[in-house]
C-alpha cells in the first residue's frame, strides 16, 4: 500500500475535532496537505484551554474511542454499546477550515474599461475538475486531496470544551463562553460545511454543592440556543476513571446520530449533483466526460458510506465506479495509454478495487474478497494487454507483486477472527481446526456443492506474500533482461531511444528502465531488499501455522535469488537454518533437498566454509548425487584437496540429523543366550551413493553395546579389489580377544550399492539384556575427520541376516522382531534344593520347624550361602530364622560343599496369632571353585497357610452365691478395706469347636482375667481341667467356669465390666510339642442392681419321694420391689407350695421360696427323657412378675441338674427317687 497515496488507503472514520483540551502532535496523522487557500474559514476562540489532570484524563478517554489504529473489521471498529469508532483529532483554540468554493479567476478589463463578464459565475470546489486551480483541471477524475480533506481537515463534529469555576462570580467568564460558542457556530455556518457542533462545560464543583451553576448554565443555553441533549453538556468533578469513561459514553451516544446525518447530507447532496448531470453547458471541450463524472459521484458516495461504516453500500458504489472506468466509453478505454490521465485513472481503479476488498473483509465476506481479487487481476491484465504495452514487462510484474501484497496487508489490517484464533491453536488440535488456520470457510450462501475453486477460499497472509514474492522474482528476471541501451540514463541517450522506451516498458508506479536496472550496483531499485522482505514475512507466517515445508521452500527460493546476485554469504545465512531443520530430509524429498544441498555447497565453496562444504558433500552423496566438481574422484580425495583451512576440520553427525551415503545395520542371530556362551551377530555396511560416484572408503566402524563391549572394524585394503555387491566377512576369530574390546580389520572401500557383511561371535559374562547402543562411521585423513553416529535402533535394525549356502549368499529371516537386542540368561545352576518336614496345614501360634537340604550336583565344589526372605498379606511380622548360631540377618553361610555332597540346615517359623498366608523364599547363592567371579543362584519358594485350629463360643448365666449379703444394720469393721458390695456368682460356658483338618489334643483350658473395672472385683473359682481330650475335625468340647463379681461400694449401682481370655493349651495328636493359644472373650457387662430369680434343688427328707425346688428372689437394688409369684399346674407332678403369692423385698435382700414336687407315675409323652441311667426332665413353670413395671423375670438355673431350654423354659432333671 506504500506505493499509493496515503489518503486513498487509510481507513475512513468519522472525523471529530476536540478543541480546548490541548493538542497532541504525535496523535496527528501526516496526511496529504491541501493547497493553501486565502478564502478558508479561520475559527478563533478566546477562551483559555482546559488544563489539569481531569482535562488530560478526559482527552485520553476520548482518544480511546479513536479507531485509526484498530483492526479493519466490524468487531474492532464497533465502539462501546455498539457505537462507532471515530477519528479523534485534538486541535488548538485556533484552526482553519479549507475553503468550500474556489476563489474566482482574475479577469482582465475590456477595451471600454469594464471587466469582461465570464459566461458562468458559478464557483466550484477547489478540488473539482471545473476549478482552474485544481490539480485535476480540466479532465482529471479524482485526487487524493479530496479524501484527505474529509479525513483530516473537515470534521463531521466539532466538540469545544470550556471550563467554569465557582470562584469566578462575575459574568465575564459566562459571556466569553457565550461569545466563543456563537462565534464558532457562525464561522461553521459561514464556511459552507455542515459540521455539527457541541459544547462541554467543565466545572470544578457540582451543581449540588454550587446551585448557582445551574443559573449560569441556563444563561449559556439561552444565549447559544444549544440543545441540552445534543448540543450542551455539563461535566461535574469526577474522581475515578470509570466515571469519566461513563461520561464520555453519555457524550458520544447522542452525538452519533448527528455524525451519521452529516455524512448522509453529503451523500444526498452528491446524489442531487449526479442527477443534474456532470459538466456544465459552458464547459470546454477538454473537460471530464460524463462517465468520468459518474465515477466521481460513485467514489464520493462510497467514501461517505465508509464514513458511516455502511460497508455493503460502499462496496456497491466502488464496484459501480470500477465498471464505469472499464466500460466501453470509460476513461480507461477512451483515454490514450500514454496520457498521464490514463495512469491516474488506473491508479484510481486500483484504489477502488482495494477499497472493495476492504469492505468485503470488513463484512466478513472472505470468499467474495478472494473472487474479487482474482477477477480484478484478470481484468487489469486484459486491459494492459489490449491498451498498454502488454503484461510481459517488469512493470506489470511489479503491479502483480503489489496487488498480491495489498491483499496480504489487508488481511493483516483486517485481523479476521478466523485466522487470529486459529493461529493460537495448539498443534495437537483436530484437523478441522488446523485447516481453519490455512484458509477461511466459504461465505454463507455458498455450499460445497457449488464446486468453488480452492483458491476462492481466502487463505492466510503467507500465500499472498508468496504470490507477491513470485511476481517480484519475475520482475527481477525481466529487469535483468533489459538491454544495455535502455539502462543508460536519458540524459546520455539519444531522443529516439528514449521515445521508444515508452512503447516498450510499462512504468506505472515503477522506475524507468535506467533506474530499474542501472549500471551502478549501489543505485537504482533494490530488488533483493523487496524479495527478502516478502520471503521472510511469508516464511514467518507459514511457520506460525505449522507449514514448515512452505516456509523452508520460500527461503530456498530467496537464497537462489540472493546467490544469483553474488550474495553468497547472505544466501548462506538464509540456507543454514533451512538445512538444519529441513523436513525434506526425513520425508525423502530428494529433488528439493538436493537443490538445497547444491546451492548450499556452492555458497560454502565461495565463502570457503570447510565444515559446511564437507557436510554438504556427504549429504549430496546420500541423495544419489555429487558436486559437479567432484567428478570421479573419491570422497576423501575430493574433500582433502579442496580444503584450504589451516587446521584439521572435524564434523560430527547423529542419526537423521544429516543423511549418510553409507548405512549401518546390526542384528543378533539368536534371541537369547547364556552367560559364557557364544552368540553370533552380523554388522552390515552398505553404500547408497549414485552409480556414477566414486567409491567411499571408511576409516573405521565403531559399534558399542550396552554391556560395555566395543567392536572396532578398521579399514585394511585387501590384496585384490572386491567387486561383488554383497560380501560376507567371517570375523569369528575376534571372539578370542578381550571380552570388552574387539578390534578387527576388513576392507571398507565401498563402491556404489556395495555391502560388507561382518559376521562376529560374542560372549557375555553378566546376565541381562544387551542392546545395541550406537554405531559410528568414521572417514578420516590428514585434513578432515567425519563421524556419523547412529543411536536410533530403528535406523540400524534389520529383520534378516545373510548366510552362505553352497557358496551363495542367501537371506534368512530372523524369528524375533527386536534384532538389536539379545537376552543373556544366567548360567543354569546345578544345585538340588529341597525342604523337609512340611505339613499340609499349619495353625496360629504354632512353632514350625523345617529342614533344608542342599545337594551339590555340580562337577566341582562350590561355596554356598542361603538367605531367607518372607513376604505375604499378614499384618503381623512373621519370625523366620535359621537354627544355627552362625546365621546373621537371615543369611547362613553353608561353606564349601564338595561335589555330590549334601548339607542340611534347620529353620524355625513362628506362626502369627491371626490366620494368614505368607511365602518363604530361600535363595541359594554359590560360586564355583573354578570361577569365583560368577555367581549362580537357585531359589526355592514355599507358601505356608496359617489357619485357626478351633473356635470358641461363650454362654453366660447367673449362679446362686451361697454366702451372706451385706446389710445396712451390720457396720462391720470399718478398718477392713474389703469390697462391701453384693457378691454375684456367674457361670461361663465355653463350647470349643475344632476347625482344624487334623486331630488335636486339648491339654488344658483355663480362664484368665485380663481387666476389671476399678470399682469392681472379680474372683475366679478354682477350676481343675478334668482330662485331656482329643478333638477330631468338627468335634466340640464343653467346659464351664465360675467366677464372682462384687462392687466395691454398695452405693455403686453401675454394671461391672470384665474382660477375660480363654487360654487353651493344645498339641497335635502324636506330637509332644505344646502350643498355647489365647482366645479373647467378648467384653462382659454384668449388672449389679437388677433383680433376678434363681432355681436350685433343695435337700428334701430322705424317707419321702418328693423333690424340693428352691426359688431364690434377689433384690440387689436400693428400692422396695413387689413381685407376683404364680406356680402353674402340671400333669407331670403335683406341688406343695403357694399357687399364687405376692412378695415384697426390701433393698439388698433375697428371699427363698420352696416348693415340694411329687412326680406322677405316668410321664407325659411330651416330657423329655434324659440320657440312659440319669432319669427324666420335668418342666415346672414359675411366673415372677414385677408388680410395678409389669415385667416378667426370667428364672435362671442356679445349680446342677437344672437347665434352661429356649422353648420349654426351666427344666429339672429327676433321677430315680
UniProtKB/TrEMBL annotation:
Limits of the Trafficking protein particle complex subunit domain: 341-622
Pfam families noted in UniProt: Foie-gras_1, Gryzun
Top-level taxon: Eukaryota
Start and end residues of each stretch annotated as Disordered: 21-42, 94-131, 480-502
TM spans (from-to): none
Coiled-coil annotated spans: none
Name by which UniProt lists this protein: Trafficking protein particle complex subunit 11
Native species: Oleoguttula mirabilis
Amino acid at each position: 500500500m506504500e506505493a499509493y497515496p496515503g489518503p486513498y488507503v487509510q481507513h475512513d472514520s468519522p472525523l471529530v475535532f476536540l478543541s480546548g483540551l490541548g493538542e497532541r502532535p504525535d496523535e496527528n496523522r501526516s496526511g496529504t496537505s491541501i493547497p493553501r487557500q486565502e478564502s478558508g474559514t479561520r475559527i478563533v476562540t478566546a477562551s483559555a484551554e482546559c488544563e489539569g489532570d481531569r482535562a488530560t484524563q478526559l482527552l485520553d478517554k476520548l482518544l480511546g474511542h479513536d479507531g485509526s489504529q484498530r483492526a479493519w473489521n466490524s468487531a474492532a471498529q464497533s465502539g462501546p454499546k455498539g457505537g462507532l469508532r471515530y477519528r479523534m483529532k485534538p486541535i488548538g483554540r485556533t484552526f482553519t477550515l479549507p475553503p468550500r468554493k474556489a476563489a474566482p479567476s482574475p479577469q482582465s478589463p475590456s477595451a471600454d474599461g469594464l471587466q469582461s463578464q465570464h459566461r458562468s459565475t458559478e464557483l466550484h470546489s477547489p478540488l473539482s475538475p471545473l476549478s482552474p486551480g485544481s490539480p485535476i483541471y480540466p479532465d482529471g477524475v479524482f485526487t487524493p486531496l479530496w479524501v484527505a480533506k474529509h479525513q483530516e481537515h473537515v470534521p463531521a463534529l466539532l466538540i469545544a470544551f470550556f471550563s467554569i469555576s465557582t470562584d469566578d462570580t462575575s459574568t465575564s467568564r459566562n459571556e466569553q463562553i457565550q461569545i466563543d460558542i456563537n462565534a464558532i457556530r457562525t464561522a461553521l455556518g459561514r464556511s459552507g460545511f455542515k459540521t455539527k457542533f457541541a459544547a462541554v462545560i467543565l466545572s470544578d464543583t457540582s451543581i449540588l454543592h454550587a446551585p448557582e451553576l445551574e443559573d449560569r448554565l441556563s444563561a449559556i443555553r439561552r444565549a447559544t440556543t444549544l440543545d441540552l441533549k445534543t448540543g450542551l453538556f455539563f461535566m461535574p468533578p469526577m474522581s475515578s476513571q470509570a466515571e469519566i469513561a461513563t461520561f464520555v459514553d453519555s457524550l458520544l451516544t447522542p452525538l452519533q446520530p448527528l455524525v451519521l446525518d452529516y455524512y448522509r447530507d453529503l451523500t444526498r447532496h452528491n446524489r442531487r449533483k449526479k442527477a443534474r448531470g456532470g459538466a456544465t453547458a459552458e464547459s470546454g471541450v477538454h473537460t471530464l466526460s460524463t462517465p468520468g463524472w459518474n465515477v466521481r459521484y460513485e467514489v464520493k458516495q462510497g467514501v461517505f458510506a465508509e464514513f458511516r461504516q455502511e460497508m455493503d453500500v460502499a462496496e456497491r458504489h466502488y464496484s459501480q465506479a470500477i465498471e464505469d472506468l472499464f466500460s466501453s466509453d470509460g476513461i480507461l478505454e477512451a483515454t490514450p495509454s500514454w496520457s498521464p490521465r490514463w495512469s491516474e485513472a488506473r491508479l484510481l481503479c486500483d484504489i477502488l478495487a482495494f477499497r472493495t476488498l476492504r469492505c468485503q473483509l470488513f463484512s466478513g465476506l472472505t470468499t467474495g474478497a478472494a473472487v474479487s481479487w482474482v477477477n480484478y487481476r484478470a481484468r487489469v491484465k486484459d486491459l494492459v494487454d489490449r491498451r498498454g504495452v502488454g503484461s510481459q514487462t517488469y512493470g506489470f510484474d511489479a503491479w502483480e507483486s503489489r496487488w498480491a501484497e495489498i491483499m496480504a496487508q489487508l488481511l493483516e489490517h483486517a485481523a479476521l477472527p478466523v485466522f487470529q484464533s486459529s493461529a493460537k491453536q495448539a498443534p495437537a488440535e483436530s484437523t478441522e481446526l488446523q485447516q481453519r488456520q490455512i484458509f477461511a470457510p466459504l461465505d454463507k450462501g455458498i455450499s460445497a456443492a457449488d464446486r468453488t475453486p480452492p483458491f476462492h477460499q481466502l487463505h492466510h497472509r503467507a500465500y499472498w506474500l508468496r504470490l507477491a514474492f513470485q511476481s517480484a522474482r519475475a520482475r527481477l528476471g525481466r529487469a535483468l533482461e533489459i538491454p544495455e541501451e535502455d539502462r543508460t540514463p536519458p540524459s546520455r541517450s539519444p531522443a529516439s531511444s528514449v521515445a521508444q522506451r515508452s512503447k516498450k516498458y510499462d512504468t506505472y508506479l515503477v522506475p524507468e528502465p535506467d533506474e530499474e536496472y542501472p549500471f551502478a550496483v549501489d543505485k537504482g531499485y533494490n530488488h533483493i531488499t523487496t524479495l527478502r522482505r516478502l520471503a521472510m514475512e511469508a516464511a514467518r507466517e507459514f511457520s506460525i501455522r505449522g507449514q514448515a515445508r512452505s516456509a523452508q521452500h520460500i527461503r530456498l527460493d530467496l537464497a537462489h535469488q540472493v546467490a544469483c546476485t553474488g550474495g553468497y554469504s547472505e544466501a548462506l545465512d538464509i540456507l543454514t537454518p533451512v538445512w538444519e531443520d529441513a523436513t525434506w530430509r526425513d520425508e525423502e524429498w530428494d529433488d528439493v533437498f538436493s537443490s538445497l544441498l547444491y546451492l548450499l555447497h556452492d555458497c560454502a565453496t565461495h565463502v570457503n566454509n570447510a565444515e559446511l562444504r564437507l557436510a554438504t558433500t556427504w549429504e549430496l552423496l546420500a541423495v544419489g548425487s555429487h558436486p559437479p566438481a567432484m567428478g570421479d574422484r573419491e570422497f576423501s580425495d575430493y574433500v582433502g584437496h579442496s580444503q584450504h583451512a589451516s587446521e584439521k576440520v572435524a564434523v560430527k553427525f547423529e542419526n537423521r540429523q544429516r543423511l549418510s551415503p553409507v548405512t549401518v545395520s546390526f542384528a543378533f542371530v539368536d534371541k537369547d543366550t547364556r552367560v559364557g556362551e557364544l552368540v553370533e551377530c552380523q554388522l552390515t555396511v552398505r553404500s547408497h551413493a549414485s552409480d556414477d560416484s566414486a567409491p567411499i572408503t571408511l576409516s573405521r566402524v565403531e559399534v558399542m553395546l550396552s554391556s560395555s563391549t566395543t567392536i572396532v572394524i578398521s579399514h585394511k585394503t585387501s590384496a585384490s579389489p572386491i567387486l561383488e555387491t554383497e560380501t560376507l566377512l567371517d570375523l569369528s576369530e575376534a571372539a578370542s580377544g578381550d571380552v570388552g574390546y574387539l578390534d578387527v580389520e576388513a576392507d571398507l572401500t565401498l563402491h556404489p550399492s556395495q555391502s560388507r557383511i561382518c559376521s562376529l561371535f560374542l560372549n557375555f559374562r553378566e546376565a541381562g539384556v544387551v542392546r545395541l547402543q550406537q554405531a559410528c562411521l568414521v572417514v578420516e585423513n590428514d585434513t578432515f575427520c567425519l563421524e556419523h553416529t547412529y543411536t536410533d535402533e530403528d535406523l540400524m535394525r534389520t529383520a534378516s541376516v545373510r548366510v552362505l549356502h553352497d557358496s551363495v549368499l542367501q537371506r534368512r529371516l530372523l524369528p524375533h522382531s527386536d534384532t538389536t537386542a539379545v537376552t543373556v540368561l544366567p548360567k543354569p545352576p546345578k544345585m538340588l534344593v529341597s525342604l523337609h518336614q512340611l505339613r499340609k496345614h499349619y495353625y496360629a501360634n504354632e512353632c514350625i520347624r523345617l529342614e533344608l537340604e542342599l545337594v551339590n550336583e555340580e562337577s566341582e565344589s562350590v561355596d554356598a550361602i542361603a538367605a531367607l526372605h518372607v513376604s505375604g498379606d499378614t499384618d503381623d511380622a512373621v519370625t523366620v530364622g535359621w537354627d544355627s548360631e552362625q546365621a546373621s540377618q537371615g543369611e547362613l553361610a553353608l561353606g564349601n560343599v564338595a561335589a555330590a555332597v549334601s548339607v542340611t540346615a534347620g529353620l524355625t517359623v513362628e506362626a502369627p496369632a491371626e490366620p494368614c498366608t505368607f511365602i518363604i523364599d530361600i535363595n541359594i547363592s554359590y560360586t564355583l571353585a573354578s570361577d569365583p567371579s560368577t555367581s549362580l543362584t537357585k531359589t526355592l519358594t514355599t507358601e505356608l497357610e496359617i489357619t485357626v485350629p478351633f473356635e470358641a463360643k461363650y454362654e453366660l448365666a447367673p449362679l446362686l452365691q451361697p454366702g451372706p449379703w451385706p446389710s445396712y444394720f451390720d457396720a462391720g469393721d470399718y478398718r477392713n478395706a474389703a469390697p462391701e458390695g453384693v457378691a454375684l456368682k456367674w457361670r461361663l460356658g465355653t463350647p470349643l469347636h475344632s476347625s482344624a483338618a487334623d486331630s488335636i489334643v486339648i491339654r488344658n483350658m483355663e480362664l484368665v482375667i485380663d481387666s476389671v473395672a476399678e470399682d469392681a472385683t472379680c474372683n475366679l473359682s478354682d477350676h481343675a481341667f478334668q482330662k485331656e481330650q482329643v478333638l477330631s475335625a468338627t468335634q466340640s468340647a464343653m467346659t464351664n467356669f465360675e467366677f464372682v463379681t462384687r462392687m466395691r461400694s454398695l452405693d455403686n449401682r453401675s454394671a461391672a465390666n470384665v474382660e477375660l481370655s480363654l487360654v487353651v493349651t493344645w498339641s497335635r495328636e502324636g506330637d509332644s510339642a505344646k502350643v498355647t493359644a489365647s482366645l479373647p472373650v467378648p467384653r462382659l457387662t454384668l449388672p449389679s442392681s437388677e433383680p433376678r430369680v434363681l432355681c436350685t434343688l433343695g435337700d428334701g427328707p430322705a424317707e419321702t419321694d418328693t423333690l424340693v425346688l428352691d426359688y431364690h428372689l434377689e433384690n440387689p437394688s436400693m428400692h422396695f420391689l413387689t413381685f407376683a409369684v404364680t406356680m402353674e399346674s402340671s400333669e407331670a407332678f403335683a406341688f406343695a407350695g403357694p399357687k399364687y403369692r405376692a412378695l415384697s423385698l426390701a433393698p439388698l435382700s433375697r428371699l427363698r421360696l420352696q416348693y415340694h414336687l411329687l412326680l406322677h407315675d405316668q410321664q407325659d409323652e411330651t416330657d423329655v427323657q434324659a440320657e440312659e441311667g440319669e432319669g427324666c426332665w420335668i418342666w415346672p413353670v414359675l411366673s415372677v412378675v414385677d408388680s410395678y413395671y409389669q415385667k416378667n423375670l426370667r428364672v435362671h438355673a442356679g445349680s446342677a441338674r437344672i437347665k434352661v431350654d429356649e422353648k420349654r423354659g426351666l427344666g429339672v432333671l429327676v433321677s430315680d427317687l
